[in-house]
Amino acid sequence: MQQRVDFHSRIEQALGNPQLKASLRSAMDGLMANRKACFPDADALEALRLRGAQIRANALSKLPQLLLQLEQRCTQNGIRVHWAESVDEANGIVLGIMREHQAELLIKGKSMVSEEMDLNRFLEAQGIECLESDLGEYILQLAGEPPSHIVAPAIHKTRQDIARLFKEKFPDIPYSDDVDTLTRNARGILRKKFYAASAGLSGVNFAVAESGTLCLVENEGNGRMCTTVPPVHIAVTGIEKVVEKLAHVPPLLKLLTRSATGQHITTYFNMISGPRRTGEKDGPKEVHLVLLDNGRSRIYEDNELVNTLRCIRCGACMNHCPIYTRIGGHAYGTTIPGPIGSILEPQKAGLDNLGELPVASTLCGACAEVCPVRIPIPTLLNRLRYERIRSDHDGATHGQGSGRTRKEAAIWKAWSWLHRSPVRYRLALTLATRLRKILPLGLGPWTRVRKPPRIAAKNLHRRAREEGFNDR
Fold first, then answer.
1. Is 401 left (phi over 0), alpha (psi -120 to 50) or beta?
2. CB 366 within 8 A of CB 321
3. Measuring CA to CA, which residue among 74, 93, 72, 61 is closest to residue 236?
4. Which UniProt keywords are listed (predicted)?
5. Residue 402 burial by Cβ neighbours in a 10 Å radius (0-12, 13-18, 19+)
6. Which CATH number does the domain 59-294 belong to among 3.10.20.340, 3.20.20.70, 3.40.50.10420, 2.70.150.10?
7. Other beta carbons within 10 Å of 361
8. Phi, psi angles (nearest 5°) of residue 118
9. Residues 430, 455: contact at Cβ < 8 Å?
């Protein structure tokens, strides 16, 4: 219940923030326009989406075997592979690596899995400094906020917000709200940290089982710095990010960059296949790969919900969602917000904790129309809505039936009793029209923002009879 109250209060706060709505609307309009411009041929786009869906479905169908192959190939390449069933175990693995090297500073590239682990807070409690090097993530770290979007984490902030934040945190730097100047200032602050850090951390966009290659997509170059300058590189990823072959990466990369930011190709594409070898001039001395489960195996076991794991984290569903574009990511209160978060997060945390998220959708289908790997998000939202109310489904989603109340059960039981008998049904309609002036106008939250419907003086059957139609 606490999650529900918090979720509703965060929604109200977001809807009451005109600056947030303006920032989101401007950003989303731009992202949608850029994506559309990158896919001018509808037939070619659908063929590419079908190919992307097939690649991800193929990888998931062989997930256990591919993960073992990935471990074998990575180990042969000199990458140390670690398995983590939970975020606590994953955090412990990272902490162990840091302590092994007596490292006191971890410089991080952008990683949603590290956000899922709440790694920064965990390591800082152990006396280890974590510094975000992605500009958006760095801004939010200074502000003490979580990401609002999985691709553009600070999308909800204006440049004036950022300028004031920099002036507050770095009073010696002259105030400026020029984007290039702000970026240059941040680069100057971060550059020294890359050389001082004993370890760098990154996420993984695609892990190739065939070659033991970790693929990392980025635009700023900070990911390349994190993975090459510090002597130790730690990569963290969910187990679903594996793909079978290196040849499967180009179609997914084409879909990812164009769907995410409207770029034909990302600025940097890193392929990491091991630590620095003899004769090489750069690169880390050690590379570690942490494979996190955290409920993904449970999702994998369901023949329908497994489609959730196809996601390549492009954020297109958020950019086109009429709910997300009005309330932003923070209102969801989860690591992954928006449509994909509304199906992924409740499966991991349980419908008893996050069962409100699948309900926060219009089911308009925009998310499914733009998903580059064709995840049937509306279908999965409906599935989770059903499971939240009913506990008789064969699925294994934790918290089934937690959203059902005695009051709601009684209402539906009465509705069923009424509609099973034509006599009872017509009598109820007649009573409703006769008593329409004294029936309550308030219908709970629905009428807080809408005019309540008024029952007509004549029901449809009576009007049909008066017009000479037989209503039998």
1. left
2. yes
3. 93
4. 4Fe-4S, Electron transport, Iron, Iron-sulfur, Metal-binding, Repeat, Transport
5. middle
6. 3.40.50.10420
7. 22
8. 55, 45
9. no
31-70: string of b/e by CB count within 10 Å (b at 16+)? bbebbeebbeeeeebeebbebbbebbbebbeebeebbebb
pLDDT (tens digit, 9 = 90+) per residue, 160-174?
999 999 999 999 989
Task: Examine domains 1-38+308-404 and 59-294 and report if their fold is the same.
Answer: no
Q: Which pair of structure tokens corresponds to residue 313? A: 């984290």
Determine the pLDDT at residue 317: 97
Strand order in the sheet with 129-132: 79-84, 286-292, 232-238, 199-202, 105-108, 129-132
Confidence bin at 428 (pLDDT 50/70/90): confident
Q: Which residues are within 8 A (CB) of 184 and not within 5 positions of it... i.e. 6 or more apart?
A: none
How many other CB atoms are there within 10 angstroms of residue 15's CB atom?
14
Assigned CATH for 1-38+308-404: 1.10.1060
> What separation in angstroms does the CA of 448 have from each of 3, 33, 325, 455?
21, 34, 21, 18
Sign of CA dihedral 109, 110, 112, 117: positive
Is residue 299 within 8 A of residue 308, CB to CB? The reply is yes
* 135, 143 contact by CB (below 8 A): no
Query: How do the domains of the chain map onto residue ranges?
Result: 1-38+308-404, 59-294, 406-466
| 325 or 392, higher pLDDT | 325
Nearest to 131 by CA among 36, 201, 29: 201
Q: Among candidates 190, 183, 147, 192, which has minimal Cα distance to 162?
A: 183
Q: Are the CB atoms for 216 and 223 separated by under 8 Å?
A: yes
Secondary structure class of 218 (helix, strand, coil): strand
Phi-psi region of 294 (alpha: psi -120 to 50; beta: other; left: phi over 0): left
Give the pLDDT confidence of 356-385 residue by residue, as tens digits. Answer: 999 999 999 999 999 999 999 999 999 999
CA dihedral angle for residue 41, residue 42, residue 46, residue 47, rounded to 10 degrees? -40
- Please tell me the distance from the alpha carbon of residue 69 to that of residue 77, in angstroms, as a whole number: 12
Specify whether the CB–CB gap between 380 and 371 falls below 8 A: no
Gap between the Cα atoms of 385 and 62, Å rounded: 29
Task: Check the CA dihedral 261-265-267-271 and report its sign.
Answer: positive
Is residue 262 within 8 Å of residue 33, measured between CB atoms?
Answer: yes
The pTM is what?
A: 0.89
Average pLDDT, the chain: 92
Give the whole-angstrom CA distance, residue 432 versus residue 437.
Answer: 9
